[in-house]
Amino acid sequence: MNHTTPEAVGLDPAVLTDQLFELWNWKDLQTLHLAALQGFSKLSEPLEALLTILESCPGKQKGRSNTLGHYILMEFQTWINEHPQVTLSSLPEQQAMALQHRALSLLTDSQPSFVDSLINIYQLSSLDLAILRLHIERLQTLNCYKEAVVLSVKLNLQKEMNMEEMCVPLILQDKISLAESFVTGHSHLELQLVTLLDSWCHPCFSMEAINKQFPRLSVSKHCVGQVKPKILTKHVLRLVEKFNIHQGLCPNALHKRRQGSLRFLMYKRFVEKGMMDENWSDHVQYVVADDLELQIQLVEMLVKYSGLQKASQWSLRYKIPRNRLPHGVWETQQSLPPHLQQVHLGDSAQIEEWMPSESHRQKFYQVPITKDKVHLVDTPDALQRCRKIVLKDGGIVGVDMEWQPTFGCISTQKVALIQLAVFEQAFLLDLCANGLCQHADTISFIRSFFSTRNVLKLGYGMAGDLKCLLSTWRQFLEEPLKMEGVLDLLNIHQQIERGTVKMTQNGPKEVLVGEDSADKGLSLLVKQVLGRPLDKTEQMSNWEKRPLRISQIRYAVADAYCLLDVYSVLSSNPARFGLPADLLSISSQSEKCGAKKHKDKRTKQMNQAHGKEECQGPQRVSPPRSDIEKGLLCGKKPSEDSPALPPQQLRVVCDNMLQGLGRYLRCLGVDVVMLENTDDHREAAILAQTEGRVILTCGQPYQSLRSQVGEGRCLSLDCSEKARDQAVRVLRHFNVQPTHNDIFSRCQACNSDQYVAVPREDMARMLKQKGFLQDQDTPHTQQKSHQQEEEKLDDVLTPTDETSELPRYALHCRWAPLSGLDPDTLTFPGGAPIQLHTVPPGLLSRILLFYVCTRCGKVFWEGSHFGRVLSMFQEVLNITDEDSESAAAHITKAQQD
After folding, report:
1. Mean pLDDT over each residue of the chain, to the nearest integer
2. At the N or C end, where does the chain have fewer CB atoms within 10 A?
3. How far apart are CA 820 and CA 830, in angstroms?
4. What confidence tier does 409 reach under pLDDT thresholds 50, 70, 90?
5. Cα dist. 65→69, 439, 472, 581, 682 in Å?
6. CA nearest 271: which of 724, 808, 697, 858?
7. How far apart are CA 70 and CA 7, in angstroms?
8. What is the Cα–Cα distance from 303 to 313, expressed in whole angstroms?
9. What is the pLDDT of residues 236-254, one digit of tens each?
10. CB atoms within 10 A of CB 30
């Protein structure tokens, strides 16, 4: 059938091609547009002619964002919409099928943008499935794996293709998002992908089998680095949640995540000593569960961190076979008396007193109500009594929530307890009580509570609470909660910190919420306003275990009730804290700023690109910066001619795949924040925006993070490189030249840059004061003790050669006077005690000067580790004689202070 229009004269497609190509080369797109539309109307067979033109068009051209073929195809799409009589269905079947085959052959890697238009114009979805499948297999043979998957999705052929053959090459090329798009919407394929990735998390997995399956696939070192259990585990658990797949179907990834959680718990309990034994026992049982291999690893770790007795008790609890026990555990089991053969988990809920000890009352904030004023809400009737009191017009309610820590084993966390405090009483909504959580009255109460304008709700950092609320009640996703009368004291706290900067007399200083203090967040605010911090010992409790212990209840009530006391003090005298009379205006201003920031995002990015404003977030107050430092914050790479930057001016956040890099950079004096293993990658973007940091990441998260913080503010690194090489690459990229005085200028534990110098005599006095050093200790016994400590803490100590000289370097850090240390408690003004238990007495005969971090209390001394770092980074260190000669002067001044 002839598709010519009345004006058609049968224009030769080759003539039209030459005409369009000439205009394309001249970049005369306006004339090209008119010539294309007029030429299409003159073609006797437009559909056949279009294919002839496209087949003769060149592929991708340098300097062009699109090809000529793509441009012609888009113009034809416009033209055919105005000529509905030109359709494939009006052609004879044989001719139509021939055109479809020709159109299908154009869908290759050289013309990826043809897909949608050719499918629509030539109705490729109607082709025989065998023909379509054969074409996709041909693309795979040509190593066009991406194009094969895109075309499969467009033609809805996923069920016809082999999932592994389609997705494995993409995963190995670090294109897992494409693999996700291939399986999304097909439950059996989703399960196959998750199962495949989980099998790669098995300890016995080897890349050799994959290489044999895809021998022609070329995989870079970077991509090989992405196929590691740690990274794959994150993908598996993320997809499990996305596709709503039962976790039991991915045992290897879950085992890997639980293994990491177990190591974290051992560190918190036995190294950091920041967790009660009962809480630790609860979490260990949750993490280990019934996994025999994890149970064995727990016993092995206990031998190392705690001793044979505790290891024996847990091995008996889990009935671990004798042939799997570490050396010495079986013998210890046999020697234990009956009363020590079980792990004593305790039931302190029944024996604790409501009133804490005198020392606790002196040190921490105390709730000003008695136990009988704390009401446990675990039935609908109790909820109604709570509702009458909490929803009174004009009332003020402190709100907080607790949930079970899952350590990344489960990404969604559900609220276990909601604390509501009014003056002189508090209510604890027990969502673990039978039937209360999903009771209609409970859901109705939550809606009414947050939407009631006449009740002021006080919280602190409520974004996390609301996220858990949505995980607990999916109904709030379908019909969102209305938030009225809510005051987030986090905004107030940030305003106070900004006012603190303005009042600083010693020049501008950058202040973040919680900096230079052992207390953070709400605990710090309570300390600043009420004089004493919160006791956060129970923060990581098992909040789903019943009954709750008295200490848990006391903690939960304090977290909510302190909000009332803080608000009362702030509202009675706001000027004292540099706040306006109307505290609610701060919250509303923050919301408006957030809305405006979202609205003007594109304008702001353009201004940043032209250097019109400094890249800093709304939660951060910065001093004046040099042009080089502003450029660094805005993502501009320093030019080769610009002077080198000191490491103190580089502020970065390392995602959890680059913790080794973060430790090296911090070791060289760079201001580094490192994400924990359980943190989401998006936390890096939040830190970069709020604290003016540059993101260091690798692999898939790079594109997502870069889009959130802007060009240049996110640097991607090769995961296959060693951490040392990554550190050198980062320093050279930003033209940062550390000196040997920058080594260890930041605390390796907490990132603080403030130390106090403690001479040997003062350290000996403190050790004696706290009972870590006895008067009868002899040099021989000290040396023996030192050797034992080194064996126990070989990952902490850095032994040094015997010398009577002063340290070889002076830290480029802030020095605090020793007089700021409380002589009785040996704690710093921020509340951190000196970690004297980490100082082997045997060191006193060899070390003249100790360095103590004022934020966390960690103790350092010069050892061979300094020399190793100096040797490792010699190529990027800027070492001068002047720096070396000034060392003794700095140390002497630090001692005098």
Report:
1. 81
2. N
3. 10
4. low
5. 12, 57, 47, 56, 30
6. 858
7. 26
8. 11
9. 988 998 898 988 899 999 9
10. 8
Q: Which tens digit of pLDDT belongs to each residue from 546-599?
A: 899 999 999 999 999 999 999 999 999 998 888 998 898 886 555 555 544 444
What is residue 675's three-state secondary structure? Answer: coil
Q: Give the residues across from 402 on adjacent strands.
A: 417
Tell me if 510 sits within 8 A of 623, measured CB to CB.
yes
Name the amino acid, one letter, at 639: S
Cβ–Cβ < 8 Å for 107, 114: yes
**Strand bridging mode 859-860 / 425-430:** unpaired
Contact at 8 Å (CB) between 136 and 148?
Answer: yes
Confirm if 543 and 552 have CB atoms less than 8 A apart.
yes
Cβ-defined contacts of 80-85 (< 8 Å, 24+): 80/46, 80/121, 83/5, 83/41, 83/46, 85/3
From CA 154, how far away is CA 144, in angstroms rounded? 16
- DSSP symbol at 457: E
> For residue 299, which of 320, 269, 270 has the smallest C-alpha distance?
320
Q: Give the closest residue to 236 by CA, choosing from 205, 266, 263.
A: 205
Q: What are phi and psi of 557, to 5 degrees?
A: -65, -40
Q: Which of 368, 357, 364, 436 is nearest to 398 (CA)?
A: 368
- Helix, strand or coil, per DSSP, at residue 724: helix
Q: Which helix (H) or strand (E) holds 459?
A: strand 456-459
For 229, the 3-state DSSP assignment is helix
The SS3 of residue 297 is helix
Give the DSSP letter of residue 736: B
Q: What is the 3-state secondary structure (H, E, C) of 692-761?
A: CCEEEECCCHHHHHHHHHCCCCEEECCCCCCHHHHHHHHHHHCCECCCCCCCCCCCCCCCCCEEEEEEHH
DSSP letter assigned to residue 435? T
The DSSP secondary-structure symbol of 576 reads G
Direct distance between the N- and C-terminal alpha carbons of the chain, in angstroms, rounded to an integer? 98
- Please name which of 339, 309, 357, 274 lies closest in space to residue 749, comparing C-alpha atoms: 274
- Radius of gyration of the chain, Cα coordinates, nearest whole angstrom: 33
Q: Among 569, 563, 486, which Cα is nearest to 521's?
A: 563
pLDDT for res 640: 52
Instruction: Enter the tokens of residue 687.
Output: 């830190």
Strands annotated E in 490-590: none
3-state secondary structure of 313: helix
Nearest to 533 by CA among 555, 503, 510: 555
At 262, list the tokens: 């177990």
At residue 112, the pLDDT reads: 60
- The closest of 581, 736, 609, 721 to 668, measured between CA atoms, is 736
380-406 per-position pLDDT tens digit:
999 999 999 999 999 999 999 999 887
pTM of the model: 0.58
User: SS3 string of 205-226?
Assistant: CCHHHHHHHCCCCCCCHHHHHH
Distance CA 234, CA 222 (A): 17
Helix (H, G, I), strand (E, B) or coil at 488: strand
pLDDT of residue 886: 46
- Say which amino acid occupies 586: I
Residues counted in the chain: 897
Predicted pLDDT at 879: 55
Partner residues linked to 695 by β-bridges: 653, 714
In terms of Cβ atoms closer than 10 Å to its own Cβ (0-12, 13-18, 19+), residue 264 is middle
Distance of CA 32 to the CA centre of its chain: 50
Consecutive H or E run containing 152: helix 145-154
